[in-house]
Amino acid sequence: PCLNHHCKKGKVCEVDDSNTPMCVCQDPSSCLAAEAEFEHVCGTDNKTYDSSCHFFATKCALEGTKKGHKLHIDYIGSCK
Length: 80
What we know:
Number of strands: 5
Mean pLDDT: 93
Low-confidence stretches: none
Shape: globular
């Protein structure tokens, strides 16, 4: 059921008890580790995320909160 069910960045498709596909926040630990420094991204919270996958998974977990609403990618690379 998840084959044609697309989710936003930071979310993954899971099937509920009635076999209905739904989007849930991705666990940041399920993201692949960054292979190079250039994969890091700096968030507007001045935190370096290992990759955009880690960033969007974290942002998803904060969805509906003031902090999550304000969190964006500031620039590519580790925070200065």
